[in-house]
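Data card: per-record layout.
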Amino acid sequence: MLLPQVEMMLPDIPRQVDSTQMEASHDMMDRSRGWVANYLDNLSGGIDSFFVDVFFDETFAQENTKGSLAKISFYTRREIGDPVDYKFGVGIRLVLPHTNERLNLLLESEDEQAREGDPLESVENPTYSAALRFIIRETEYWTTNIDAGVKWAMIPDPFVRLRARRFAYFDHWNMRITQTFSYFTSDGYGEDTALVFDYPLSTERLLRLETKASYLLNDDFFELRYGIGSYRELSRKAAIALVGQARGDTENGATFNHYSAAFRYRRQAYKSWMFFEVAPGLEWSGDKNYETTPVIMFRLEAVMAN
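The structure for this 306-residue chain is written out next.
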């Protein structure tokens, strides 16, 4: 993925008169370039799947792995001045046999921002969706799929969703753009456009910039989100991140009414599939006259892939 960019990062190797030494130097340079490229690829991919969740882009982590996948998470969040709330989430993808891995069965919890005041209610009350996904195209640079399913609420809500993702690499930046078109019986037609830019600062650090705009035809305005994050790998079992985000909409002109900043520490808690995370942060919301509000979140998450 990063071969064109990594070559610029490697130091120049002096030319040798002896042809044998020149060949050895070229071999060493090729091995070094390949090692750095693979390391950066693994780092970027690892951080993507390590931190991407409901606050960023949970679907990318699920779609960026091959085979069947199950992800279960439970977190609690405390905002000063409000009671503790809880959130249970689940995402399951089963690759159906004899379909060349192009037909998947999906089961996901919806209402990502909805939280409950009781731990048991957080498990019982989420809205779930079930869908069949057909992968139309999957290459190094393109991923296109279509989902058809039902969101199970008080009244079943059938939907269809077409998603296309494009990967691009230029200079030291990695970019992915995701375009989604959807139709839900309850909400009507809508679209989401998301852009993510990753810049490897080193073999242990990654800078991410992201933006997302969502539009519902019935609402006739965009919901906007901008984010920035700096991620650092402490070890193979732990990493930290500093993240900031601004949210708003265009209902009365482009207006941002919610800002947040957080420190996140995530660690592999058990073997390679159980993770623990703690994230203290600050929020400024227009609903509270932009007063500084401390918040803290704890999460326990299991990710199992086959």
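Known properties of this structure: Confidence is low (pLDDT under 50) at residues 1-17, 31-46, 48-57. The two ends are 24 Å apart (CA to CA).

See the next section for split statistics.
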